[in-house]
Amino acid sequence: MRKVKVERKTKEVDITMELDVDGKGTVEVETGVKFLNHLLVTIAKHGLFDLKVKATGDLTHHISEDVALVLGEALRKVVEKRKGIKRFGSAYVPMDDSLARATVDLGGRAYIIRNLGLMQPQIEDLKTEDIEHFFDSLAQASKANLHITVLYGSNEHHKIEAAVKALALALRQALEVEPRIGDEVPSAKGVL
User: I need a surface site. Which of 1, 144, 145, 163 has the fewest CB within 10 A?
Assistant: First the structure.
């Protein structure tokens, strides 16, 4: 069972999240930020994660940052011992005019390289800097190594949607159970 529930309550936010990484893409998301909702639904649908999120807060920045922290914590808890998973994942996704690539290592070392090529200060109701910070916070809290690149594109919405879809597919691949290694940790060191 790779299901977790994570709550985060601060003076700025109140977030409850349930994540099942072996789901079917069933989603119930309400953050009060429409584009953030869209990103979370996209991650769940293409990652085949069952995801429930209820988030309220004082500022869009705090909600987007803390939702990413909670999602990262949930992913980290799901693979806490990192045994039996593929660990690595990668995907390319086209979205009309845009092409994005995401690569993931769930090896327990937080790092992010992102090159989203965004030119506008805002996409829908979410600031570009908050979108970038979402990915940074996700990498930090999940202790994952994320490399996300938009290779090209002209529509800002399409760039981010392609990037999020690629991330979802890469996460799904990295989280897959690898039956050939059984209960082993996928590392030459024997530990992660």
Answer: 1
